Amino acid sequence: MSEHDASARRHADDYSDRVGREFPGGSYTITPWRTWLVADTLLDDPWDETPHPVLAWMAGVAGMGMTWDDLFAWFDAGPEDGPMFGEHRTTLHLPLRRGATYDVTGRIVSAERKVGRRAGAFDVVGYELDLHLAGEHVARCYNSIVFPRRDA
Amino acid sequence: MSDRSAVEVGSPIPPLQVTVDPEKMKVMAALLSDPTPIHFDTRALAALGMDERPVNQGPLNMGYLQTMLARWAGGRDRVLDFRVRFLGNVLAGDVVRAHGVVTEVSDGDRGRVATCDIALDVVGGAVALSGTAEVLLDEAPAVPSTRDQELT
């Protein structure tokens, strides 16, 4: 069975034991080229040197120390299952700086099975990511991922 | 940039309207190292029985709203808190409109802050994102350091 063979993979009924699991963590540099390209993909001004706020979340996921595939696998899912964003929150305690390298930590904060009338069964998994610079807490991002469980 | 001194409860945020470009999604997929094929692979979309137009990434949809807030508030570093729920997909070629309204104006440690209700609509379609944000309208005056006080 392929690691991402959704048809053959079995899902647990309860993933609450993953809550509290820490990401390996790492670091992320808001390089000038990333600042430029992110603004350009948003059809915003790429020559504005102030990093776009969406880079807080991008820095978090890029620096969390694992791939999307790794994270999905913690919940017996893969990209072909169609995981979706649920909710998002970014809180910036300090402005982002172009050229700065942020230390990233993060963890799973919730995992809940739900059943929708139309959507059927799905798991909502919440995680949070923290950015630190020189010991100061710069930002926290919370995000939830919705994993459809068509076979549950 | 608008006149921030006149901001009050009920003030509208100048809306931002963009046409979603699938080429930008490919760049964002690379920036995010996001393997999810629905953002770039039209054959994968067809295999999933979905509309063959690629699905815009959540961070891009968030970013349009943050761009609107930043332009209004006078800088990308003025978005302090941003919270949204993902309600629907945005597809390549869609025209989306970011908009918002001020619900509270308050003074805090960082200065004068506006709390806003925000949403991203697909023009002619449904609401894709909705939520709230806090943006800095005017920074609090710098507090003189002890040394500055000693010198005056």
Describe the structure.
The complex is a heterodimer of chains A (152) and B (152). Chain A is of the alpha+beta class and 152 residues long. Helix content of chain A is 17%, strand content 37%. Chain A is built from three helices and five strands; from the N terminus they run βαααββββ. Chain A has a five-stranded antiparallel beta sheet, with helices on one face. Chain A is elongated. Chain B has 152 residues and is an alpha+beta fold. Chain B has one domain (11-151): Hotdog Thioesterase (Thiol Ester Dehydrase, Chain A, Roll). Chain B contains four helices and five strands, in the order βαααββββα. Chain B has helices at residues 22-32, 42-47, 58-73, 146-151; strands spanning 12-19, 79-86, 95-108, 111-122, 127-139. In chain B, strands 1-3-4-5-2 form a five-stranded antiparallel beta sheet, with helices on one face. In chain B, β4 (111-122) and β5 (127-139) form a beta hairpin. The longest helix of chain B is centred in the middle third of the chain and has 16 residues, at 58-73. Chain B is elongated and about 60 Å long. The relative contact order of chain B is 0.20. The mean pLDDT of chain B is 91. Classes of the chains: A alpha+beta (152), B alpha+beta (152). Chain A binds chain B through residues 34, 37-38, 40-44, 48, 50-54, 57-58, 61-62, 67-69, 79-80, 82-92, 95-96, and chain B through 18, 21, 24-25, 27-28, 31-38, 48, 58-60, 62-64, 66-67, 70, 75-77, 79-86. Chain B: InterPro entries: HotDog_dom_sf, MaoC-like_dom.
